Amino acid sequence: MRSELREQIYTIVAQIPPGRVTTYGRIAKMTDGATPRAVGSAMGHLPSGHELPWHRVINASLKVTEHGGAVRQREKLRAEGVAFDSRGCVNSELLWP
Questions:
Q1: Taking the domains of the chain in order of start, what are their residue ranges?
Q2: CA neighbor of 44 nearest in space, from 8, 68, 22
Q3: Taking the CB of residue 69, how many other CB atoms lie within 10 A of it?
Q4: DSSP code of 28?
Q5: pLDDT tens sequence across 44-95
């Protein structure tokens, strides 16, 4: 992935406010050519010591994608007041932007 595209993704993620979420696809549409998969890859390769709110990026089904950090991601979202329904989905009213 081009470094410029990765930087676009990280700039967008940095803007997601606490208590809100967005999807890989929504972020991709805000860039100059990223795909949702590329956004996911960028999230999976964040530099050590970063301050990005990676936990606020979820999948198109409004669920946390299952990965090694999924439990931690749900915990961080709950700490910001994000609730999950019985299916593990976030309320669409919390979508940003």
A1: 3-94
A2: 68
A3: 16
A4: H
A5: 999 889 999 999 999 999 999 999 999 999 999 999 999 999 999 999 999 9
User: Quick one: which of 47, 65, 48 has its CA closest to 56?
Assistant: 65
Bridge partners, 89 (sequence order):
63
Element housing 22 (H / E): strand 22-23
Q: Residue 16: how many CA atoms within 13 Å on its side-chain side?
A: 26
Q: What is the reported pTM?
A: 0.95
Residues in Cβ contact with 12 at an 8 Å cutoff, skipping those fewer than 6 apart: 27, 30, 31
Bridge partners of residue 58, in order along the sequence: 23
* pLDDT given at position 31: 97
pLDDT of residue 47: 86
CATH, domain range 3-94: 1.10.10.10
Q: Which residue carries 């890859």 as its tokens?
A: 41
Distance separating alpha carbons of residues 49 and 78, to the nearest angstrom: 22
How far, CA to CA in Å, does 61 sit from each of 6, 9, 57? 23, 20, 12
